[in-house]
Known about the structure:
The structure holds 2 protein chains of 2 kinds.
Chain A: H1 6-10, H2 12-47, H3 64-71, H4 73-104, H5 111-119, H6 126-136, H7 142-149, H8 166-191, H9 195-203, H10 208-219, H11 221-236, H12 240-245, H13 257-267, H14 271-302
Chain B: H1 6-34, H2 56-96, H3 102-111, H4 118-135, H5 143-166, H6 171-179, H7 184-192, H8 197-213, H9 216-221, H10 230-238, H11 245-277
Helix pairs in contact in B: 1-11, 2-5, 2-8, 2-10, 2-11, 3-5, 5-8, 6-7, 8-11, 10-11
Amino acid sequence: xxxxxxxxxxxxxxxxxxxxxxxxxxxxxxxxxxxxxxxxxxxxxxxxxxxxxxxxxxxxxxxxxxxxxxxxxxxxxxxxxxxxxxxxxxxxxxxxxxxxxxxxxxxxxxxxxxxxxxxxxxxxxxxxxxxxxxxxxxxxxxxxxxxxxxxxxxxxxxxxxxxxxxxxxxxxxxxxxxxxxxxxxxxxxxxxxxxxxxxxxxxxxxxxxxxxxxxxxxxxxxxxxxxxxxxxxxxxxxxxxxxxxxxxxxxxxxxxxxxxxxxxxxxxxxxxxxxxxxxxxxxxxxxxxxxxxxxxxxxxxxx
Amino acid sequence: xxxxxxxxxxxxxxxxxxxxxxxxxxxxxxxxxxxxxxxxxxxxxxxxxxxxxxxxxxxxxxxxxxxxxxxxxxxxxxxxxxxxxxxxxxxxxxxxxxxxxxxxxxxxxxxxxxxxxxxxxxxxxxxxxxxxxxxxxxxxxxxxxxxxxxxxxxxxxxxxxxxxxxxxxxxxxxxxxxxxxxxxxxxxxxxxxxxxxxxxxxxxxxxxxxxxxxxxxxxxxxxxxxxxxxxxxxxxxxxxxxxxxxxxxxxxxxxxxxxxxxxxxxxxxxxxxxxxxxxxx
Lengths: 303, 281
C-alpha cells in the first residue's frame, strides 16, 4: 500500500526514509541470512562431504552419506518413531485440547483457574518435565503405584522399559506439556463464534451435539490447521524431552533424529552423517511449514 | 441462555477436576518428595505426604545448581532486552515503512523461527570458534557466545510479534506525524514507542521463557559445567546415578520456578505471546 503511495515519489524526504528503513532492517536480514540460510547451505555442503572423523575433510562424496543413512537400522527406527510420535502426539493434543476448550466454554465456575492449570506446563522446560515424567513412569513407582493404590493394577504398564510401548510414554509426557496450547487456541476460536449463530442453530431445532458437530467444529478448522502446523513441526524436531526422559531407550525404541544427530555429531565426531540427519529433519519441517507460510502471507496480502 | 441438566453439570465439573489433577500430578510429586527428609524418601511411598517438612533436598539441589542459575540469568537478560529492541524496530519498519522487497524479506525472516536448529548447529559451532579467534574473545563455550546465538535466532519471532502488534496501530497516526514533519525515527520515538509497552511485555515474556528453557544450543555450545545454563546442569543432575531422586525433583522444581512465576503473575501476556507464535496475529 505504501510502495505505490503518490506522496512517496512526490517527496524526496519520504523516499529517503524508505531507504533508511531498508538500511535499518538490513543488519537483521544479514544476520538471519548468514545464520539461517548460509548455515543451512554449509550444513548441506558438510552432508555431501567425507567429514566423518575428528579432522575436517570436506572432499565431495555426493549423496553417499544420505544413502548410507537410509540403510542404517537406527535411522530407519528413528523415522518410524517420528511418524508414530507425530501422529499420536497430534491426535492427543487436538483431542484433549478440544475437549478442554469445549468444557471451559460452558460457562463454568473457576474457568480462569482451570485454564491456568491446563496451560501452565507450557511455561516449563522439556528438561524439567522429562525429569519429572521419568520418575512418574518409572515402572516400580509413580503412576503404577497410584494405580495399585486405586485397585486398578490391571492398568499397570512397564511404560518406557518395554520397547513396544516406550515411545507412547514420551507421547504422554509431550501431550501433558503441549495440550494446553491447543486448548488455548480452540478456546480463542470458540470465543470468536457469535452467540447469535448458536441461537439460530438452536431455533432451527439442532441439539447441542448437532450444534457442535455441524456448526461449531467446521468453524474451528483454521484453528486445527494452525495447531497441526505448530505442533507438527515441534514434534518433527523433538529433542530435549526425549533426551531428558528416556534417551534412546531400549533398542532405540524412543530414539529420534534429533538425538541421533546430536550424538553422532558431537559424541561420535561423524559430522557428515550428523549433517545428513539434520538435512533430513529440515526437509521434513520445510514440507510442513513452507506451504503454511506461503498460504498465510498470501492470505494477509489479500485480506 | 443455555439451560442444562444439573447431572450434566456435575459430571462436567468432575471431568474438569480429574483433568486438572492429571496436569498437577508432576508438580505434586516434585513438591511432595522435595519436602521430605532424606530418611523418609522412598520410591514405594512417592504419593504419601511428608511426615515433617524439610528443605534438605531443595538446599542440596540449590547448592548444585546455584552457579548455573547465575549463568542463566546472565544469559536471559541480554538475550531478552536486545532481541526485544531489535524486534520492535524491525516490526515498526516492516509494518509502517514497507520498502521495496519488504514483503519478500518478512517471510524469509519468519522461516528462521521454524527450522530445526540441528540444521545450523555444525556451522554455528565452527563460526563461534572462528569469530572468537579473529575477535580475540571467547564465544564458543561461554555465556556471551550463547547469548549472541539467542539474540540472532530470536530476531524472527520478536519481529513477527511486534509487526503484528504495530499492525493494530492505525496508519493514519503515522501519516499524521509524517505530515507534521516527523521523520522515520522521530515517529518511532514520539508515536510508536509510547504505545509499545504491551508489545514489549509480550515479547520479553516470550524470550525469557524461551531462552531460560532452551537446551540444544546450551548443551552444544557450553561444555564446561561451570559455564553451563541451568537446564544443562539439571540434565546432568537428573542423569546422574549417584544423585538422590528427591534432589533431582527439587532441582527440577527450582529450575521451573522462574518461568512458572512469570506464568502465574503475567499469564495473560504469556498466552498472547503463545498465540502470536502460532502466526495468528
